[in-house]
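Notes continue from the previous slide.

Worked example: a multi-chain complex. Inputs as given:
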Amino acid sequence: MGLIKADEMTLNIGPQHPSTHGVLRLKVKTDGEIVSEITPVIGYLHRCFEKHCEYLTYEQVIPFTDRCDYIAAMNNNFGYVVAVEKMMDIQVPERVEYIRIIMAELNRIASHLLALGTFGLDVGAYTPFLYMFRDRERILDLFEITCGARLLYNYMWIGGVSHDLPVGFVEATYRFLDEFEKKSEEYHNILSYNKIFIERTADVGVLPKDVAIDYGVTGPNLRGSGVKWDLRKDEPYSIYEKFKFEVPVGQGLMGSVGDSWDRYWVRAEEMKESVKIVRQALDKMPRKGDVHEALPKRVRPPQGSIYFRTESPRGDLGYYIISDGKDKPVRVKMRSPAFTALSALSEIASGWMLSDVLVVLGSLDIVLGEIDR
Amino acid sequence: MTIDNIIIWFQSWLPNARIAPLYVAAVLIAALAIFLVMAVNALVAVYAERKISAFMQDRVGPMGQGPGLHAGKWGLLQTVADTIKLILKEDIIPKAADKKLFIIAPFIVFLGAFIALAALPWGPTLIAADMNIGLFYILAVSSFGVIGIIFAAWSSDNKWSLFGGMRSAAQIISYEIPAALSLVAVLLLAGTLSMQGIVANQSGTVWGFLPNWNIFNNPFTFLAFFIYFIAGVAETNRTPFDIPEAESELVAGFHTEYSGMRWAFFFLSEYGNMLVVAGVAVVAFLGGWQSPIDGIMQGPLWGLIWFLLKMTVVILIMIWWRWTFPRLRVDQLMNVAWKVLLPIALFNLFGTAIWTLTIG
């Protein structure tokens, strides 16, 4: 009798698949349900962002940054405009700084809501996803009354923002924050402490501290592994040093430090911190001021280059801009946090079952628009 | 109203006819009735599922602007519209598919649920076939569908389908054992395999005030109900045991390649299976068509009403589960069946046997 030979099967997950969070293709080698090898294939959403930038003026690049991480467009605008402002040495009015922080943090909540919701969906829980979308909707409504757009805002301009806050925005935001804090308990009841959810995510796809650092993983994924690294605290930009907030890190409450549950938990906690920041910003914000005051007549940064990074909901979002003194950048390079997170996938998800691979992928919270650019 | 009754009724009209054609006619009538039950169940249950899930998720669910527009008032005609859509849809058979198996698979799956319903007692006199091995028959034929699922999975020539089919076969076979063992506990009390016999055994009261349903009879059967229910939900492939068609993992599992009416048959049999599982739970543990208060509101019509009411409650719990729980992983699912439910069910059977010998 010979040995029963079980062949390995190559499985293509995506680019059309319900839980690849965009158009990602995973080439997966499976032995039954066990996955032995994962090769992410990217590029299905490549739109030549960086090359395009070389033919556009500095202002025209902003809408393109929206379209990179379309889940958190405000944060993408933020990094780019602050980088250009740094090059040109522009001081923006205080009110603008506050408005930018409010928008960035609201967008962070919206982005994390989507991340947690789709993560629940990957585990098979449908209802929490819709709860989170219900609340995300209210943030998008706030953005809509401010700048008219719900997803791709082009809100932050070099030296200012496109529209001042509309009448009633501050009150509406306070109201939203109050209700959101109450409602976020619902998520914990239905998802976070659910026994099946914990079984599925705790100890699954553990990303150890050193591996995370080796791969250059940043943001909530890195903090989930227990590294306290948040640019808003460690390299404060804009006026973040004025706010009091904590940096939550994974503690391995349900399993070991750096598992999928920890990454989920860090995002859930970060939403609470963002609520705190938005509250403080609303309290302290100057009530009057012209948001277009510091807009430069002509955007022509002096010759030179800058690398500037901000904390987007997905991690360190860096922009490297080279200027030759003309109205168009010579080179714009974007350092994508989701790209590095995806590169760690095969390291932490190999050897797990097929279902776990998708759970780990969901816990890394990637956005393909940003990976492919 | 059994098939035998229908034949006798026919014979009173046509005293000289041969028995064979009458038998065929009677079976066809019963089959039609069961098919209608399944179709209506699907119509109602799908609507209920959509509306309930919508209410649970802060949505409104299917809505229409009025008769003739969209899906009627409150979306009441939504499932009808869906059915029409499914009938009109193109029926796609993949080029690489094993055509014969691909065509026949949905009907085999459907058949499993369909013939199981024949032995469900809807009322004191309302049952298609009151066999003396009714419960055994239902257990036997409800695992029939898994053959169809494997056919579908294999013939689709799709890796996702294959995964789904393999998972489904493993799951249904595993969960059949605890389900059957917990039903054996009921058989010890009833002393019969006949569905009507099991229900008739549950009349009267127990502990003074509770109806003498098997679930209240003793602590072991109380536990047996939950084992059966969990295993039953697993057999219907519903959340949290929906790994064979896990949308976020396997696209749609074994029916990935199916479309139109063929897909609808899978859907129909899923809801038919819910009906079977709920029906058996009601018959074996919840007193079947017996009234909850002894001696009041009994009779053929009340029997039907009680049976339907109890079944609705059980199905509503299944719907509630589906929209609350995440999904288990395939190995966790197997662990639950073999390491948790099976030992408890065995212990439970032992306990029931001791109880019936000593106290009962």
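Summary box: The first helix of chain A runs from residue 49 to 53. Chain A has one domain: 9-372.
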